[in-house]
Amino acid sequence: MKGVKELKARLGSIGGIKKVTSTMELVATAKMKKLQERAFASRPYAESIAAMMARVAAFAPANVSPLLRQPDEVKRECVIIVAADKGLCGAFNANILREAALYIAARQNDGIEIEAYSFGRRAAQAVEKLGFTSAGNCETKLELVSYSEIALAMRELGERFVQDEFQKVTLITTEFKSVVTFVPKVVGMLPLAEEEDESAEEKTESSEELDYIMEPSAETIMKRLIPKTLEMKLFSGVLESLASEFASRRVAMKNATDSASDMIDDLRREYNKARQSGITGELLEIIAGAEALNG
């Protein structure tokens, strides 16, 4: 059995770790709620702007924007990877980076050159470690990144697509489904495909039955809507990833706190046994010494 001093030191050490993990759990819960609200609030806007574009597309020519150009052959693809800036969030980073590595490996097997654009320090580290060509990275901490920074990054990638440096742009992020469910997701960004959402299709069909008067023209509206749609898809992907990251960190820290509590209970029982054994041994020594003195 371990000594009393050693057990007492371990109890103090694990107690300190428990305080840290418990605090991190509270912080992650608070941040997760805020980011969850932001992610959920962005969904209706993203869906509405996509549905609006689908309605207007029925009245605009197919070649209204080079971002709609379907390449004859994909030789180079840009993969946008959204991960976390930090660890201690369970398997969150491992899951998204494994999904990205599998996707990139499959595309490379098809003979396609890959460049990776990273959001989050862990994504940038993975791109460097795995030897992928970097198309750039967001240097701002993801919690602090603004819509304008994300829009600028999307515009730069869009310009490179128009210049035929890329024939395809894909987003790999984490979809936030609930506080305990978040899964990696691959989203096609460019070329901008026709909206597959059922509600958007229904609205498009209903729009064909109506004779809209558009001011300005459908072409002008489409040229404004297409970049905004891409920016919102990327912005929404970053928000969903952030909400998933802190949900995963909350679960990880809760599990760590519960494990620390269990270890403390086990060590406290062991400590009490060792302490009682020590007291009993001292009493026996005193009794033996007294008997020896009494002859």
In short:
This protein has 295 residues and is α/β, with parallel strands linked by helices. It folds into two domains: 4-25 and 251-288, Orthogonal Bundle (Helix Hairpins), CATH 1.10.287; 40-249, ATP synthase, F1 complex, gamma subunit (Pyruvate Kinase, Chain: A, domain 1, 3-Layer(aba) Sandwich). 63% of the residues lie in helices and 13% in strands.
Written account of the structure:
The structure is a single chain. The chain has 295 residues and is α/β, with parallel strands linked by helices. It has two domains: 4-25 and 251-288, Helix Hairpins (Orthogonal Bundle); 40-249, Pyruvate Kinase, Chain: A, domain 1. It is built from six helices and five strands; from the N terminus they run αβαβαβαββαα. The chain has helices at residues 4-57, 92-109, 121-130, 147-162, 198-208, 218-293; strands at 76-82, 113-119, 133-138, 168-176, 182-190. A five-stranded mixed β-sheet has the order 3-2-1-4-5, sandwiched between helices. Residues 194-208 have low confidence and may be disordered.
